[in-house]
Amino acid sequence: MSKNPNNLHSKPAVKHEFSDVEKLGLSVSTRYSKIVHPDIESRDIYSSLYAIHQQINEYSPTCDFEGFDWFVSTIAIVFELDIDQTIFTLKEFSRWEMSMYFWPRCVAVDKNYLSSFEIVHTYCHIVDSILEAELPLVYSALTLSGITSSQ
After folding, report:
1. What would the pLDDT profile of 93-129 be if each residue is shown by its tens digit?
2. Contacts of 99 (CB under 8 A, 6+ apart)
3. Considering only CA atoms, which of 71, 62, 57 is closest in space to residue 25?
4. What is the pLDDT of residues 68-101, one digit of tens each?
5. Residue 147: exposed, middle, or buried by beta-carbon count in 10 A (0-12, 13-18, 19+)?
6. What are the two backbone dihedrals, phi and then psi, of residue 116, each rounded to the nearest 5 degrees?
7. Which is nearest to 41 in space by CA: 81, 87, 69, 1?
8. How far, in Å, CA of 58 to CA of 41, rounded?
């Protein structure tokens, strides 16, 4: 396990103001969470998701990651909106090198970790390998048509 030195491990800084897109993402995540966890009240779901996103955003105030962080919401839903467990898991997960492929915020926080070209190249290579192994006919058809599967 290799460490990813990023700001998610520092102390909280400034309060993050949510954009309209992030508020919409919280609302959509709340609706989905209500389906997955019908025993939890909607306002409790929203406040838990809000608190989790707020804490993650506080740990990376200089991050220029734009949009809603769906990965954080997904992990929160998996852990039944337990704030402490979700934050702990995300902090630990962000230390793995492979986390950059699943959680774009890890790369956005530490620009020097890998260039975006390296990430895209590696990710596309992984997609090509999986497609070639699991769906060889689709892979062959794409190759014969002159399109790589990762396009």
Report:
1. 887 877 777 776 665 555 555 555 566 667 677 778 8
2. 4, 93, 106
3. 71
4. 888 899 999 999 999 999 999 988 888 787 777 7
5. exposed
6. -65, -30
7. 81
8. 26
